[in-house]
């Protein structure tokens, strides 16, 4: 196929993305230009559960919380790769099975490493 035919298949998608981008920018700009702006000290105050805030809203979070969150995302995203593999497993045959076993083995090694380092311990 010539490159022009390949690109013409994507033209409707490009037009849709362009129109969506222009509309989003226009809506934000119009809201900013014509929206009411009557800020006061009471409006700018932090608000939570109808209670007046006591003390600072900023507090230190333990690094362990972020570590567990990042590890969850990492392993969760890697597990997402199992679904497409399961869909085309019959087409891939034995080679696909071996490749996925290698992938799962690498995941398992990473999981065991994280577990042994104590990153999943919550105190």
Which whole number gives the mean pLDDT? 84
Describe the largest sheet. none
Q: In CATH, what is the class?
A: Mainly Alpha
Radius of gyration: 26 Å
Instruction: Give the tally of β-strands.
Output: 0
So what's the overall shape?
flat
The tally of helices reads: 5
User: Structural class, from secondary structure content?
Assistant: mainly alpha
Tally of discrete structural domains:
1
Q: Percentage of helical residues?
A: 55-70%
* Through-space gap between termini: 61 Å
By CATH, the architecture is named Up-down Bundle
Task: Explain what the structure shows.
The model has no long low-confidence stretch (mean pLDDT 84). The chain has a single domain, classed as Methane Monooxygenase Hydroxylase, Chain G, domain 1 (Up-down Bundle). The protein has 5 helices and no strands. The protein has helices at 3-9, 11-34, 63-80, 82-87, 89-117. It is mostly helical.
Q: What's this entry about, in short?
A:
The chain has 123 residues and is an all-alpha fold.
Keywords summarizing the entry:
Methane Monooxygenase Hydroxylase, Chain G, domain 1; mainly alpha; 123 residues
Which helices and strands occur, and which strands form pairs?
Elements: H1 3-9, H2 11-34, H3 63-80, H4 82-87, H5 89-117
